[in-house]
Design a protein that fits this description.
heterodimer; A: 144 residues; alpha+beta; Heat Shock Protein 90; six-stranded antiparallel sheet; globular; B: 119 residues; alpha/beta; Transcription Regulator spoIIAA; five-stranded mixed sheet; two-stranded parallel sheet; 39% helix
Chain lengths: 144, 119
């Protein structure tokens, strides 16, 4: 469902933990940002962060259980986009994950989603005991 | 499970097998799985000294695609094949820099440079 007031666009959605179920929500967010003339670099950043967060929710939070839902929300204003992704898992301790940029971890195939989210978004924080991630981005001149 | 589409086209030139990635986006689970299977098969069956993966068509890539590339790189090393990546989009190159994967992959701006780089 989406609403618009005072030039602020809002959308919330809930979908099962299956591959591709979040795609319509991601596309709606990107379409709205494109309509507001956000740069292609910023669009790339938002798409990457949102898809990585949804993938983490499906895979790690809900363990790919299609009966479990992923709840997402987006709020887009002139100044920023604010996104949230919440799963039904027990929460996530980021400090417990190995740093993928350390030399000894570079050839490990997994574990880069959160690193990318943190780098491509302006602010990132967690709620709901770690089961929800909030991601904020302000439009930038060079996109990063 | 994987999809039935073709994700890479392979050409041969000098000592290299050159794989053109056909997808504009490497972010859907089934597509990435199929793309990975094609990449792994190329490396496993490669009779050439180098494999060059050309990303000219690719404009978006998720961390799942990075997972395939890291696995492909590990397989290439085990088989003593040099894996080069080229024509990577500016936004995607930023992903490689953030993750420091640009330090383990042989990344070249063009196919010609990948063909003539020292192994």
């Amino acid at each position: 469902m989406s609403t618009q007031s005072n030039n602020t666009w809002r959308r919330v959605a809930s979908f099962p933990s299956v591959s591709g179920a979040g795609t319509p929500f991601v596309e709606a967010v990107l379409n709205e940002l494109a309509r507001r003339a956000w740069s292609s670099k910023d669009l790339f950043a938002v798409q990457l962060a949102l898809e990585e967060a949804i993938a983490n929710a499906v895979e790690h939070g809900n363990r790919r259980d299609p009966a479990k839902k992923v709840d997402v929300s987006a709020e887009i204003s002139v100044e920023r986009v604010l996104l949230s992704v919440r799963d039904e898992g027990e929460g996530f301790d980021e400090t417990a994950t190995p740093n993928p940029t350390l030399a000894e971890n570079l050839e490990i195939p997994t574990g880069r989603g959160l690193l990318l989210i943190g780098n491509f978004m302006t602010n990132v924080w967690r709620g709901s005991g770690g089961a929800e991630i909030f991601m904020e981005k302000t439009p930038t001149s060079d996109g990063f | 499970m994987s999809d039935s589409k073709v994700h890479i086209l392979v050409r041969y030139e000098d000592d290299a097998a050159i794989a053109d990635c056909l997808d504009a986006k490497l972010n859907e689970e089934l597509s990435i799985q199929s793309w990975g299977d094609e990449m792994y098969a190329l490396i496993e069956n490669c009779k050439k000294e180098r494999v060059i993966v050309n990303f000219q068509n690719v404009k978006f890539m998720s961390s799942s695609a990075l997972r395939v590339l890291i696995t492909a790189n590990n397989k290439a090393k085990a088989k003593r094949v040099a894996l080069f990546l080229c024509r990577i989009d500016e936004n995607i190159l930023e992903v490689f820099k953030i993750t420091k994967l640009d330090t383990i992959f042989k990344i070249r701006p063009t196919e010609v440079e990948a063909l003539h780089s020292q192994i």
